[in-house]
Structures are given as C-alpha cells and as structure tokens.
Design brief:
The chain has 273 residues and is an alpha+beta fold. It has two domains: 75 residues, no CATH class; 176 residues, no CATH class. It contains ten helices and ten strands. α1 crosses α10 and α3 crosses α7. It is elongated and about 70 Å long. It comes from Limosilactobacillus avistercoris.
Amino acid sequence: MDRNFLKNSQQFLDYLNHENNIEAPKEECFKRKRKTIEALTKYNDLKVAEVDSQYFGWIPNSWLERGLSSQAYGLLVLIVIHSAPVPYYQKQIAVIGNLAIRRLLGLNNANRKGKIDDLLYELELSEIITVHENFIELNREETSSYQGTGFTKVYASTVKKILEHIQGMKVLNILASYLALRSTIFENKTSGNLPVTMGSLQAWASGKVSLSPRVHSDNLKWLREHDILAWVEAIRNNAKHNSCFYYSELWDAESIMHEVLASLSSRILRLAS
C-alpha cells in the first residue's frame, strides 16, 4: 500500500480543513484526527503476495438465486476454488471428492461422509454440478456467457486463510458469508471498479446464501477478528449515528481507504473513535 497516499490526497486535506473549522475543545479535535489517521493507515505496513490477487474461482450470480442451503453454498466455494478448465474434456472440473473435502474441513469422523454426500446431491439436484467417480463437473459456460447477470469471484488466498483458522462444518457457513460479501463487490477496472463493499449491504446479501442477517453478521465479525479481510469501521453522519463497515480483500486495502476518504470529505461519515 502506498504510504504517501494521505499526503497526496486532496480529499484528506479537505477533511482536515473541515475539522480545523469545527468549534470543539482542542484535545477532542486532536483525538478525532489521530483516530482517523490511525484508521486510514492501519494497512500501511501490510505485506501481501502478488499471487493473492491472481488465483480465484467464480460463481455465476444466477446460482445465488437457486435457494440452496448455506452449507451447500459454502461447499460450492470450496469446489470452484479447486476447479479449472480442462480442454481435453471441454469441461470445467474440480479434482476433489468427498474424502478430500472432509480433509480440507478437518473432519476426521467418517459419519460426516453422509452429510457431505447430501450437500453434493443438493448441488447436483440444482444442476450446478455433476458428480463423477473421480471428479466433479461444474455445469457452467465461460465467463463471457454471464455478461448480463454477472458472476462473483472468490479468492483462493482468502479461502486458504479461513481454513487455517477454523475447521469443521462451521467452515461452510463462514465460506457462505464470504461468498455473500463478495457478491456485493464489483471488479471491473474499465467500467466502474468498486472493490469495496459496505456492511449495510450485508443484511440483503445474507439472503442470497440462506443465512439469517444475525448469523451472517456474526460470521463477518469472525472474518474481521481473524484479519481475513481488510476493513474499516465508520459512523454515519445521520440522526442515528449508526456504525457501518467497509470491506475489501487484504491485497486491495488501498481501495478501501480511498472509498472511506471520499465519504469523509463529503461528510457522509466519520470514523469510529
């Protein structure tokens, strides 16, 4: 992340000028500006691998309208992360099966095989996948076929971090929340790139993956506490002064700061103290 982006930001200068004109005790103004600078520079020293932004799976947005269970959506994230186009078969396949899935989830109990089979069957019944003896086929076309409805990217580096911090069936609900959050992020650097999402969208997004807003909110809190994503908490400058969160991938943390700066300079919000 560019350590000088605040120094070179007119929006930040506008924010400071506004703060300097507020009639308030000096100590209070200083504390507020210090907290703001700390929040905007929290990822200055973050080191991420270049490959973190290069490897991803993708899910057609139309699949989020199938009304599957949250665990089935979480399992779908695992499957697409382990998939690749195979020209020989002219298919998109994932070389992963029940045993590999259970190992990824840290499930040592053999009686979980039936549960994973049930989730695979749920995905197959919805015509999202076809389960073969040695691989799983994804029933989708090339990304260009989804220009109208679009698709959602999920990143391998983020999924890997999640699996490093938690095991068991709970992983699938966390992955479902990650998918829901990612579905509200638009990546297109030539047409309105928006690699940041706001927490206020998440109550709506939770329904896409069959999670209640409360459970989804708890999962997002877990993602924040374990530094899986970049995030900033802010307070809206409205009558209720309710808090909101901005999220992005860690490797795109600078984008979140630019988005927050724009809202600060336009007085839409202030950063949480």
